[in-house]
Amino acid sequence: MNFTSVTDILDVETFVQEAIALKKTPFAFQHLGKNKTLGLVFLNPSLRTRLSTQIAAQNLGMNVVIVNADKDSWALEFQDGAVMDGNTVEHIRDAAPVLGSYCDIIGVRCFPGLLSKAVDDSEHIMRQFIQWTNKPYLSLESATLHPLQSLADTITMAEHRPAHRPRVVLTWAPHIKPIPHAVANSFAEWTNRLEVDFVITHPEGYELNPRFSGNARIEYNQQKALEGADFVYVKNWSSYAEYGKILSQDTSWMLTNKHLENTNNARVMHCLPVRRNVELSDEILDGPYSLVQEQAKNRVFAAQAVLKRMLENL
Amino acid sequence: MNFTSVTDILDVETFVQEAIALKKTPFAFQHLGKNKTLGLVFLNPSLRTRLSTQIAAQNLGMNVVIVNADKDSWALEFQDGAVMDGNTVEHIRDAAPVLGSYCDIIGVRCFPGLLSKAVDDSEHIMRQFIQWTNKPYLSLESATLHPLQSLADTITMAEHRPAHRPRVVLTWAPHIKPIPHAVANSFAEWTNRLEVDFVITHPEGYELNPRFSGNARIEYNQQKALEGADFVYVKNWSSYAEYGKILSQDTSWMLTNKHLENTNNARVMHCLPVRRNVELSDEILDGPYSLVQEQAKNRVFAAQAVLKRMLENL
Amino acid sequence: MNFTSVTDILDVETFVQEAIALKKTPFAFQHLGKNKTLGLVFLNPSLRTRLSTQIAAQNLGMNVVIVNADKDSWALEFQDGAVMDGNTVEHIRDAAPVLGSYCDIIGVRCFPGLLSKAVDDSEHIMRQFIQWTNKPYLSLESATLHPLQSLADTITMAEHRPAHRPRVVLTWAPHIKPIPHAVANSFAEWTNRLEVDFVITHPEGYELNPRFSGNARIEYNQQKALEGADFVYVKNWSSYAEYGKILSQDTSWMLTNKHLENTNNARVMHCLPVRRNVELSDEILDGPYSLVQEQAKNRVFAAQAVLKRMLENL
How many CB atoms lie under 10 A from the CB of residue A314? Predict the structure, then answer.
């Protein structure tokens, strides 16, 4: 079993309930991971993903080994047929099988380069890890998706679900740097599987890859989109059409309490790290409607639910 | 329970004896830490603190997760209300609660900037970690204090205590760089709680913050200060009055055997790392009166005594 | 017991069989490492060595602590009598005993500088770690040798040993950088202890230190050397005579299937990381005769056999 997308989970609702159950008895399955090793490979920085995945694995009795690639280890080559007379020291075709023979499950974080849409969309790094490790693969965020985050987000919305069919809004927010699409794509992909009304709002030119946004309604007027919202997910991403470009830094898109006036007392979500007062205002982050810390806490149980299922299928 | 200063310990003498007892049976309390996680955050380099705290936690059966901030993770912002459009990626107000929700105890190393006395004295980094993690806080050295070091130093002096009331001298030593005051402040703060005669000696202008040096006698003549000493603690620090400045590099302050002639066969102490033949001479470090390795070894049992008490109070 | 060279192992053949037995029951000796700590010090990058040694230790029930020297910790000084007024912050004479008092076994990776033959041949870094930690020392590759690699190589050859007395060829390969001699020296040293015909082939000027190559036959004609080979070990190294220099980048020395035509269906070995299509061709690495992944996998059981023996002798 790999975990790279919502499409790896047949029954999202049941899976979310399993994660919520693990939250109550996190140490109930320590026998499952005994003498099993999780290998975590970080090609990019990480705080929540690094810690929550380690703790989830330890809760299940697993050992964890960590590779901070390019820092502790050797610079990796991903090009097939490369004549390696440059800066890269080891090919993924050689390194990945070693990881696969040492570990029972492999987690990898590999951000997109944001230079070539075709390269990033092909997930060429993730695919090669999957192909050459030949072990269950746990995405710690890939070029296009961040499924552990989205599972945690889905758990958080389930815990706060109103009695009525909820209205969920994913809103673009300003940022100073070109940011990957993975969290937004992934949130869209998961939310499209839920029994909710789902709206995505962003300035024109920021349309997500339709492979992930699917049938979600797109509304360019943020204020209109927010009307009646129960959950507002805030996230910046760079343009997909003009790939990796910043098209707008319109600060009026940054949510304040004022923006939420016509929502249904909406709970506000963000995956963190968040640039305060650029992406999202202090008053919301520090106010009573923020769910960001609950989302972060649920990262542990999201990872634990996935690892538990992988261990059961080893 | 937090551990940031000697003021967190009501009965220093009993606590020291507890640590000495743990040294004899380090694995006697492994049930205490079962399924508990210690999170260690390093904003600065560390050898002894990193390893001794890990080993102390493992001796108690805890799991340990480590964040090398700014390297493995995201650059942190500490300013309230900051508009985060610069180099920092995550605010302590968001990162710290995540650490708090993942871990049962949080240890943080945060050196002073040595640029602003007011900022460093306020312990603004440590205070924010304490405020926002909402979990027991273990100082791995802060801007002004290094209590785990001082506890280890106190244990070491207890193990070598002469029959008479000991004379303890803290002497400044030369160095090539501006060095924090934490070890010296902390040693003074702890030693002021012991039944000893305590003298601090340094060139004029190197007076420590009186909040920590308290009623200790200050003697500017090093040779006079050393007379009859049982323990000599060697340490460089930068000026506190002219904050963070180097006022002297007078090499005559570097201890050699000659300096110790009028002591009471004084045992010599240093927290390590030490710049040999700048702060302290080879002949002392490699001679029979050095206690530096015993201090380092006691770091494990200092950390273990503190973690044990924290676990008992969870 | 230290493990720095084949000379630390009295009976290589028995030891190899012990490692092969551990491969079948890796968790059979977890009581041996209970409450024992392995300290790993990396002065250089590492993937296989880092992970395989950690996993071997965990298989034996040990705790592992890791120091990435110069990154997580303090820059080390190795010169006796140094006046430390430069970039180094801590002397090996102070740091190593601390590691020794914290850990039960110490593993160190310390590559050569390739600037001074005398300095590297003296193994001045490794010797000081051994001298000052005063604990069993596990070489994770030193200036001149890489015995864990060679033990894994020897295990791999034992698993694929033909019925007849095998012919083993160590062949030099091109590279773009000056590379240490450790893997080649070490392979020669171990293979000289086996019941095999052993040939070393390289361009003139690339003779290894005869202390390690011993009585192995040297053949400058690669094609002649490869005739009838059962195992071909491919490795670059810089000149030992003109110490640390690159004397040849003759690409005809890079093995392709064509080179292997007159061998006895030779199995091809390399320690990894390998620069593809510089040191060794894709067609061999991805072909049916490559043993590189089996060598890598055996690194776990090589380390485990050594650690098991060390633990039994504590």
Answer: 12
Q: Which residues of chain A have pLDDT under 50?
A: none
pLDDT digits (tens, 9 = 90+) for B136-187: 999 999 999 999 999 999 999 999 999 999 999 999 999 999 999 999 999 9
CB contact under 8 A, C72 and B51: no
E-only strand ranges, chain C: 37-42, 63-68, 76-77, 90-91, 105-109, 137-139, 167-172, 197-201, 217-219, 231-235, 267-269
Q: Using the beta-carbon criterion (under 8 Å), do A95 and C275 form an inter-chain contact?
A: no
Instruction: Kindly report the number of other CB atoms within 10 A of residue B217's CB atom.
Output: 12
| Of C239, C252, C231, residue with least CA distance to C295 | C231
Q: Which residue, among B25, B41, B43, B47, would best test binding to C if mutated, counting the most C CBs under 10 Å from its CB?
A: B47
Looking only at the bridges linking them, the beta strands covering B137-139 and B105-109 are: parallel
d(CA B112, CA C34): 39
Q: Give the full edge-to-edge strand order of the sheet including A137-139.
A: A63-68, A37-42, A105-109, A137-139
Strands C76-77 and C63-68: unpaired
Cα angle for residues C297, C299, C301 (degrees, 5° grid): 90
Residues B252-271 have a mean pLDDT of 98
Write out pLDDT tens, residues A61-77: 999 999 998 777 888 99
Domains of chain A: 6-145+299-312 (3.40.50.1370), 161-290 (3.40.50.1370)
Positive/negative CA dihedral, C285, C291, C295, C296: positive
Which residues of chain C neighbour B297 with C-beta distances below 8 Å?
A: 98, 101-102
Q: Residue C103: how many CB atoms within 10 A of its CB?
A: 25
Say if CB C216 and CB C199 are below 8 A apart: yes
- Note whether A91 contacts C51, CB cutoff 8 Å: no
How many Cβ atoms are within 10 Å of C264's Cβ, its own excluded? 16
pLDDT digits (tens, 9 = 90+) for B210-225: 999 999 999 999 999 9
Q: Residue C112: which pLDDT band, with cuts at 50, 70 and 90? A: very high
Cβ <8 Å between B68 and C67 = no
Indicate whether this model's pTM tops 0.90: yes
Number of H helices, E strands in chain B: 11, 11
